[in-house]
Design a protein that fits this description.
It is built from 19 helices and 22 strands. By secondary structure, it is of the alpha/beta class.
Length: about 550
């Protein structure tokens, strides 16, 4: 609750069928509010009362007459004292409902600025129609007009004059009512709270992003992934590395973090379900946005035929993404397999990314957004036509996830000491070298070096080149990183694998890092020295 009041009390008032119960339930579901019903308080004070609306109305009026409504404040205090959440930052209590001004004033006197009063109303005819349409045991056999003759019920709208917020539920959806209530309670962050860190590739993909994510993931509450299965990320584990094609790379390293695939994600349902099963992911932990794109078998076959001349991974990502764009005019929900919401197999995991992110912001949770591929493969900013089907810069990844730039705290751009492209006609790179040359310079045995330099998704050989300073400077300009993560520093010398502190790196590596910082104007905050449990030198100041 933003570190302010230790607990809050919400008072809800309104006429019969004005929407009180709906608001109370939304506060319970979305903010873990404890609901205290005045009906239950009456029953405790008058155990012999008949559980029927008229009898409860009369009993409540008698209690109000005795002390002017003070009894509700006293009963509320007993509930607070008995609840261990009382006086904690997670304490939110909803009184459903207050009926007279004396009840409101007594509670305000006891708890002052901790109390928020919401009055809901609707047009009388709307209220009557809602009453006739519903079925509740305590209203059985009662007529609406008869209930409205009750003195307290007749005067209920006078509470609108002293309420903090008055909401007309006849002109406001339940979601909008919740937004207004949440804002009143100061549960939304004031301004754009910077809770999001973004990690993106600065070159042509395969920069070792998974390795860096694996190192920092335990610091986050929500892990978000965009992109599709054409980009695989690896994280060290034993007896074999973890490979992630859809799920965030920190899935196992941060077992308590929620997982989110945003609306711009592209999903192969069969492969995703295999990945979910392999990592034991529950539908309570993983949320897939309903608008995420779904790959069909036909998409994959089309890519094999059409994009082999640019060394596409042929996973169907591009064709599926194009279908989402071109199929708008004849799309039939539930019939066409375009989106995640149309896929039966994904139903248990479906949700709304905006809601997941909004809830995370309300709770002050830290979020890690993991980008896809590399900046120079961007559809708009890469070397067309040797590009992927999306914008892979930080701006594109934020858009695919549904996160505003003002929520970003850090941008970590991952770069290799020697950039790579997938083998074949995958596009130009400056000053290519071969694996034999890397072997000669680094001292790393040739066979494991060649084995390591194969793509995660298609197992193709990679092309490798000298570090391209012009390309690097372009990526810095496009992404505006706050930090650089440098990977494969062992390619400057196998001795770097034994370095656990920055000063233990070889002089050549230290000079290279200094030049990266000079050219970019950003710190090299993370360095990956090898692929093992202790493989990242962490120089962060955050």
């Amino acid at each position: 609750m933003n570190g302010q009041a230790s607990f809050r009390v919400v008072l809800v008032s309104g006429a019969i069928c004005s929407g009180k119960s709906a608001l109370v339930e939304l506060l319970r579901e979305n903010h873990s509010a404890r609901v205290i019903k005045t009906k239950d308080l009456i029953i405790r004070k008058v155990p012999k009362v008949e559980i029927e609306r008229r009898s409860l109305q009369r009993a409540g009026e008698k209690l109000d007459k005795n002390d002017g409504g003070q009894w509700v404040a006293e009963a509320l205090q007993r509930e607070l004292d008995a609840d261990p959440r009382h006086k904690t930052p997670r304490g939110l209590y909803v009184v459903d409902c207050v009926r007279i001004e004396g009840q409101v004033n007594a509670i305000r006197l006891a708890h002052g600025p901790e109390v928020f009063h919401i009055h809901v109303k609707a047009d009388p005819e709307v209220l009557k129609q809602r009453f006739l349409a519903r079925s509740r045991a305590d209203d059985a056999g009662l007529e609406y007009d008869s209930l409205k003759k009750n003195k307290t019920e007749r005067n209920i709208e006078s509470l609108a004059e002293i309420a903090d917020v008055v909401v007309d539920t006849g002109r406001c959806s339940s979601a909008s009512v919740l937004v207004r209530a949440t804002a009143l309670l100061n549960l939304y962050p004031r301004g754009a709270e910077k809770l999001v860190d973004v990690l993106i590739g600065g070159q042509y993909g395969s920069e070792g992003k998974g390795n860096i994510v694996g190192h920092i993931a335990p610091e986050y509450d929500l892990l978000v992934r965009v992109g599709g299965p054409n980009a695989g990320h690896q994280v060290f584990a034993e007896p074999e590395p973890e490979k992630y094609f859809h799920l965030p790379s920190g899935t196992q390293r941060a077992p308590n973090a929620k997982l989110l695939l945003g609306p711009g994600a592209v999903i192969n349902p069969t492969k995703l379900l295999d990945e979910i099963a392999k990592h034991g992911i529950s539908n309570e932990r993983l949320i897939i946005d309903r608008q995420a794109i779904v790959i069909s078998n036909d998409d994959i076959e089309q890519e094999k035929v059409r994009f082999g001349n640019i060394s596409s991974t042929a996973q169907g990502v591009g064709i599926a993404s194009a279908r989402k764009l071109t199929g708008r005019s004849d799309y039939k929900a539930g019939t066409d397999l375009f989106l995640a919401k149309d896929c039966d197999d994904l139903q248990p995991f479906l949700g709304n990314a905006r809601k997941v992110l909004a809830d995370a912001f309300v709770r002050g949770h830290r979020i890690l957004l993991e980008g896809t591929q590399g900046t120079s493969l961007s559809l708009h900013h890469g070397q067309y036509p040797h590009v992927t089907s999306r914008d892979t810069t930080v701006a594109g990844c934020l858009a695919d996830a549904g996160i505003a730039p003002s929520n970003v705290r850090r941008v970590i751009m991952v770069c290799r000491t020697y950039p790579i492209r997938v083998g074949g006609p995958s596009g130009p790179m400056e000053y290519e070298v071969d694996m034999e040359e890397i072997h000669r310079r680094s001292g790393i045995p040739l066979d494991p070096l060649k084995l390591a330099e194969r793509t995660t998704t298609t197992n193709k050989e990679r092309r490798i080149a000298e570090f391209d300073w012009a390309q690097f400077k372009d990526s810095v300009q496009l992404n505006g990183p706050t930090d650089i993560a440098l990977t494969f520093v062992d390619y400057f010398g196998i001795k770097n694998r034994k370095a656990f502190r920055f000063e233990q790196l070889t002089p050549e590596t230290i000079r290279f890092v200094e030049e990266v910082e000079r050219v970019s104007g950003r710190p090299v905050s993370l360095l990956s020295t090898d692929f093992n449990w202790r493989n990242v030198i962490d120089r962060r100041s955050w």
